[in-house]
Write a structure and sequence with these properties.
The chain is α/β, with parallel strands linked by helices and 453 residues long. It is built from 15 helices and 13 strands. The strands form three sheets. Strands 3-4-7-8-9-10-12-13 form an eight-stranded parallel barrel, surrounded by five helices. α9 packs parallel to α10. The longest helix has 35 residues. The chain is globular. The structure holds flavin mononucleotide.
Amino acid sequence: MSSRSSMVLKRNLLSTSKQVSRSFATSGKTCSIFTNNSKRTTKIQPKKIVLQSNLFGSLAISIGALGIGLYCLDARSAVQEYVFCPLLRLATSAEDGHKLGIKFLKYGLAPRLFSDHDDEILQVDVFGKKLKNPVGMAAGFDKEGEAIDPVLDLGFSYIEIGSITPEPQPGNPKPRFFRLPQDDAVINRYGFNSSGHLSVLSTLRVRFERLLSANPNATNNSFRDGKLLAINLGKNKTGDEIEDYVKGVQNFGPYADVLVINVSSPNTPGLRNLQSEAKLTNLLKTVVLERDNLPGELINPNLKPPVLVKIAPDLTEEEIKSISIAAKAAKIDGIIMSNTTVQRPVKKMITKSDVVRETGGLSGKPLKEISLRGLRTLRKYTKDSDLVLVGCGGISSGKDAIEFAKAGATFVELYTAFAYKGPGLAAKVKDEIVSELKKEGKTWMEIVGSDDK
Ligand SMILES: Cc1cc2nc3c(=O)[nH]c(=O)nc-3n(C[C@H](O)[C@H](O)[C@H](O)COP(=O)(O)O)c2cc1C
């Protein structure tokens, strides 16, 4: 290298080092290191600082990532309702989204509740048992009983699996499930797609054996204190109107804390005709007799599951009155109001597309007024009895739940709102119920049927 070029190189190096020291000086962090000429400080300190800042940086990034991870895993976080649920809707058809939701829950991939304490004022006295809270998951979400425990872990006190048909059947051709997001509603015409009694029974048996060894003193088939497992029975499309339900009682009675006779799906031809007084009385009497003949629940041979009937919201007052008469005559334990509706309250709905006219049952927000009206009528004809009324249809908040309770529901169930609002819904509904009850200075049981007064 010539002496001239080595001079140029030194000058460049010098100016670079001055620029670096100036830039550090302006950053206000370490000017002294570079402005004093001590070799020790200039050689060792920068490495230390770089190391320290790298360490702090990585720590901050890790804590941040952990925080974001925990936030995303928290079922209550807003990101579930406003980011993940809409993304799932964008990425999947309604049916695939439903299947994916079940798989996520089943395999422990869904968000979870980090704390779930039920205030005592939420306690429900029903069927001689206690429920920790009045919020249940309605039938149709977990048709095959694959996600019972994950659903209960999300804060629900009751889960109704099914409807289950005796023989496997595919249900109606696809597409058969449609979203109406502007109305927080869906229309479905699944038509009792079911893997059949044997398949669901084997799922329940595996669960029962697994949980029994861990909880030998459990008192409910849900294996949780204050929580109940209900099993909803349907009939095959070409099945027998009575036999199919009788088989359901025989097969599932031992595994159920509650049995539900579903005669109100709009998607099985002729099913809703079973709601006529004569047919219903005959069916329910047979079912109750069969229940009474059961050896007892597996978890407690001294108990036999209460029987509920689930009815449609599209009934006239006369029809509701005759169902009440049938329910009392057959001595069943309760009535669920309601299943999905075949009505389309389009004037109150935002969705204007043709989806509204899809055949099937409408559920979610637009159903609420219809099923609430049905519940009030049902209460009118059952308040002189011990029949437990269960409210269902368009419930998406604590205020909705309270309206149903005041109209006569001992507890409530929901499904469609869960699909729109995400896995934290039960917890949020319960929080809202507690705050409303505290404002009124009442417990849940004190408001049940309080509209009567
Ligand atoms: C996709 C879907 C499938 C359903 N399947 C069943 C069923 O198999 N058996 C039943 O009794 N109800 C079924 N239902 C009705 C619900 O249990 C519930 O009664 C109805 O959706 C009203 O409640 P919601 O507005 O909170 O969804 C289904 C509902 C939906 C949306």
